[in-house]
Design a protein that fits this description.
With 247 residues, the protein is an alpha+beta fold. The chain has helices spanning 19-30, 43-53, 71-77, 90-111, 117-136, 139-146, 151-155, 159-176, 180-204, 224-246, and strands spanning 5-13, 16-17, 34-40, 60-63, 66-69. Strands 1, 2, 3, 4 and 5 form a five-stranded mixed beta sheet that branches. β1 (5-13) and β2 (16-17) form a beta hairpin. The longest helix is centred in the C-terminal third of the chain and has 25 residues, at 180-204. The protein is elongated, with a radius of gyration of 24 Å.
Length: 247
């Protein structure tokens, strides 16, 4: 901990309280700094401050006479973020972790056990629903990013708009265990196309792209982890289809 003082300039207006200013103040205090808070309470004060320091945004933090910058720069300053890191697996890891916990909760609720064979099915189905939901938040953005690497979407643009509904819909049907004759072929088809597209883009063409798996604003790198979504759908399609036919 340190007894250093940091100067923070942030917007505190009747119609706008800057959230990043609040977060900067909290972070500074958490790091042991005494915060010399300078609220900018009107547009004239904000404009005068930005003109004086040659900046285009607020908040701005100064430590030891040095301007650190806004909230993002402050996190980098304290070693909480990597300034060179443009991609991260965090969104997809969080999604799969939540899906796993939901599958375990469903198992306990319905069967009174922690894990049963169907837990794996429920995990895959819930993952498909959550992944589809992420894409449905912004179908236009997803379809645009998807066009960068999906082979079918590049030949038939509407596929990029259909995909989120197909993925989420197949997941819902698989979770319910109904209409397998629809859900299994859909999952198998989109999984095979997706896996082929990702493999070609990453391992044959050696392209460095971001995966659209969690939506159009994704920062997840296209690579092996991106194949997980498609491989899981292929496995679910084959398993559910075989189960419906032979079990």
């Amino acid at each position: 901990m340190t007894d250093q003082t940091a100067r923070l300039y942030r917007m505190v207006m009747p119609d706008h309280l800057c959230p990043f200013g609040r977060k900067s103040k909290f972070l500074l205090k958490r790091k042991g700094y005494e915060v010399e808070d300078h609220p900018l309470t009107n547009r004239d004060e904000v404009d005068a401050f930005m003109d004086k320091h040659g900046v285009e945004t607020t908040p701005q933090t100064f430590i030891g006479g040095e301007r650190i910058g806004g909230y993002d720069e402050l996190r980098v300053h304290f070693g909480l973020d990597d300034p060179d890191k443009e991609t991260t697996y965090q969104p997809i890891i969080a999604l799969f972790a939540v899906a796993a916990l939901m599958a375990l909760a469903l198992t306990w609720l319905l069967r009174g056990e922690v894990v049963i064979p169907r837990t794996v099915e429920w995990f895959a189905a819930i993952s498909m629903i959550l992944l589809g939901l992420q894409k449905l938040k912004d179908v236009e953005g997803f379809s645009t990013m998807f066009l960068n690497y999906d082979l079918l979407a590049q030949k038939w643009v509407p596929y990029g708009y259909i995909y989120p509904y197909a993925e989420a819909g197949a997941g819902v049907l698989m979770l319910a265990g109904v209409l397998t004759w629809i859900s299994a072929p859909v999952a198998l088809f989109i999984g095979l196309v997706g896996a082929t597209s990702v493999f070609k883009a990453v391992y044959i063409d050696k392209r460095e792209l971001k995966c659209a798996c969690v939506g159009g604003d994704s920062s997840v790198p296209l690579g092996f982890v991106s194949l997980t979504e498609n491989l899981m759908m292929i496995a679910m399609g084959l398993w559910m289809g075989a189960k419906a036919l032979f079990l």
